[in-house]
Amino acid sequence: MKTLIVAPEGNHRKTLFNALKLVRRLIPVRTASTWVEAQELMETHSLPDLIIFDLQVFPDGDEGCVQQVREHLPDTPCIALVETTRQIHLVEAARIDGWLFKGFRMSELIDKIDTLASQNMRRKI
User: For residue 57, what are the domain limits?
Assistant: First the structure.
């Protein structure tokens, strides 16, 4: 499963990237620091099977920005990394597939990915 990680540069993104490399089913093919950079990557490379993004990548953090993800990738499972309850509401309003509070355990991320993968497989059948 090709995974795109969209998060500000730093330890958080690096840790996420390295952890996903350890999971056999996930191949973190790309990382981006901003949503604009992520869009450019998707235009020049194959689309990912999964996107994990930090809401910090959207400068305004408003619902319209988050909805861009769903508009550009209606069939790609997405997981948002959030810090507040307000951000959860934004993510849910934009119909993003799932969310995790920052500071999550890796087992929580893997469970979320497994759930999304099985839901995605059912949609394709």
Answer: 2-124
